[in-house]
Write the structure tokens for this entry.
Amino acid sequence: MIIDDSALVRQMLEKLLLTEPDFEVIGKAANPYFAAEKIKKQIPDVITLDVEMPRMDGLTFLKVLMKQKPIPVVVVSSLTKKGNITAIKALELGAIDIVNKPNMRSIGDLQSIERLKFIDIIRAAAHANVYKSREKLSTIKTNASLSADRVIGNRQSHSMLETTNKILAIGASTGGTEAIHYVLKNLPYDCPPVAIVQHMPEHFTRSFAARMNDVCEITVKEASNGDALIRGQALIAPGNKHMLVKRSGARYYVELDDGPLVNRHKPSVDVLFKSVAKYAGKNAIGVIMTGMGKDGAKGLLDMKEAGAFTIAQNKESCVVYGMPQEAVKLGAVDKILSLRQIPNNVVGRNSHYSI
């Protein structure tokens, strides 16, 4: 079901979705009141929801919907500066994901990255465990794609000075914002440096990092090129930029890269994990969490082969058990844990490392 106050947008989204033979648009509504009447007659598998609408805004509708009849919701919004915090709030209220409103050109080009990513997100939402996305876990193939190896350089033996400095690398996609929230909220103020890739549109990562910084004991910020990885701080890769971990002597820092998409994503978890394998080796812990697809699986295997300790979120606590499952299939995972178990297993008494 498509909910948007613009008739043109409703028509555009319907046209885009119907390019997939297994998709059906069962209803369109100009506002949440009309949508509620249609939902009484037929319940959709997924709802696309605009945020700013007359009579009732999207956030109010989302809050009511999740309390009364949880249905996977994808927020489809124009990414204006004004809307960033609003969209982050939508994720906190239970939306599965947020995406840009596709442009008309992407509909005509069946192989455009924008269209393919939009379809992937809707398909992931249809298989999402919407109840997991609402759990209160916190205390409050296109030519444009390349492999991660092409971004960071082919793997090779790296002459590393001995260091005891540790790094925690985290990758997530659909459902990952709340999962990352839970992990960061439960890390101590002096935890090892954290590098995070969360599949999220450009500009939204800054708002997400600011929100995490407000509620976590550690410092959380959107990464800038050259930022040092320091204890008690988490760096989140900015949307539309790959983030790599590099090393100079005993100092770790991040480098941002504007190269092509990897696994249809930028930032890519594979790019982060492969760089961590190359430059941190056994001094790292890798965590792959909820999300659709396979981004991060090969990178986590590289980390494991380089001596890092690797963790995958279990199926029961994932909103979408895609990326962790692919990593498990590759033999890239040392330990499978529920979301609640992850913080104590990366820092604390159950940690693999004394960090």
